[in-house]
Amino acid sequence: MNPTSASAVMSNLDLKYILDNSYDLIIITNEKGKILMVNSAVKRILNVKPEEIIGKKIDDLIRKGYYDRSVTLKAAKSRKIETGLVKTCTGKLLIVTSNPIFDDKNNLRFIFTNTKEQELVNDYLQNIEYKNIKLRTEIDCFRDRNLNEEELVYKSKCMKEVVDEAKRVALFDANVLITGETGTGKDLLAKFIHRHSRRAEESFVPINCAAIPEHLMESELFGYEYGAFSGASSKGKLGLLEVANNGTLFLDEVAELPLSLQAKLLRVLESKEIMRLGGTKIQRIDVRLICATNKNLRKLVHEGKFREDLYFRLNVVHIKIPPLRDRKEDIKILSDHFIRLLNQKYGTRKKLSERAIRVANDYEWPGNVRELKNVIERLVICSTKDVMECRVDIRKDINNKTRANINLSEEETRPNPCKKTLKEIRRDSEREYIMKIMNQTNWKVSEASKILGIHRTVLWKKMKEYNIEKP
């Protein structure tokens, strides 16, 4: 279709009708900033009728307070496309793009200005962020399932009872409180409940209440609007309660939740409504809450450190995971499970000797399954034989309590440390300590770097140098 026939099909009236149906504000000016055309969106954005400003100059609108600045005039001066933020008399923030239009002789004829409300753009970006977070969560869950790392491995009767109860509870939307010592696998049980619930296809959003500073916890949970506080993102931020909508929110170490936030969380559980910091819009949410702690919440209630009403809300169903020392039948099957995963990861063919299994069964495992997993990995890495041995040193700690501390190394072929250089010993010690801290913090680099007293980038470099990867 040639230009002549196109102009015959589309009249000026058609063009005006099309522009008026644009949700964005469109203004066309001449080279001097005189308004030649404006669409009907001006009524919504500037609270004026189109005929009130057609024929006026952009300068006049600025003087009268319609705008605080003009991107149109900037584009006329620079003779190139310009984009900027403009504030209107109605308090709206606009994202404005002005495009200068030239004739065949490169003379400036018109400036075409398109204006979007920043709030709409932010909502769009946050919607994308929300979808990205959900996709990342789903990818993580898919990866975990493929690696079988999220599998609950057990043989003991007491753990079978725990898992059976978790399966029953998963079918209902009641709040669940999971208790147990550090390293017993409370997070795995929470994921297990989510995967067996009607919300399994939605997000599972974990948050460690002890890992986030108190002054950031509220914004992490509830999110915030633009300008809610000093240092807030110009786009605002989704809260984890929003991200978990229709899914499951897992509050790990819930005993560390500040009292001020406990009251707000209680209101959310009662009303099913949230409001972002600095916001005015109330949002309905549908979230299943699972909490975990290694502390006695009832005792904290008596001490005034945890709200009693929130405790009752969380403690609808209570599942306690027994420590590893009370389910010794699980030690071998867990060890075999971890060795199988590590053999796949490192391309090895390691297994525990019968003596090593006896030693492991005699140990108390104060760090529970997490400690066992770390010990097995250390064995797989340090052992030079396919059949791995270990030995036990009995020592007294500073509290004069005798306990077993497993030093895992090979009995017969253990290299003599005296033959190592100081640099090698320092390197081995540093690697082992970094591994310990990473496991202790569940591989959270920010948290681990604070404990180690180094910057995150330094920690990343050391992890790369020592070939430290999350198992």
Protein model, in words:
By secondary structure, the protein is α/β, with parallel strands linked by helices. Strand 11 and strand 12 form a beta hairpin. It has 20 helices and 18 strands. The protein folds into 3 domains: 11-117, Beta-Lactamase (2-Layer Sandwich); 148-322, Rossmann fold, CATH 3.40.50.300; 326-395 and 403-465, Helicase, Ruva Protein, domain 3. The protein has a 5-stranded antiparallel beta sheet with strand order 2-1-5-4-3. It has helices at residues 3-9, 12-20, 41-46, 50-53, 58-63, 71-78, 118-147, 157-170, 186-195, 214-222, 240-243, 259-271, 297-302, 308-314, 329-346, 354-362, 368-382, 422-440, 445-452, 456-465; strands at 25-30, 35-38, 82-87, 93-102, 108-117, 176-179, 204-208, 223-224, 237-238, 248-252, 273-274, 283-284, 288-293, 317-320, 351-352, 387-388, 391-396, 402-407. Residues 391-417 have low confidence and may be disordered. Helix 8 crosses helix 9 (186-195). Helix content is 45%, strand content 18%. The chain starts with a helix and ends in a 6-residue tail after the last helix.
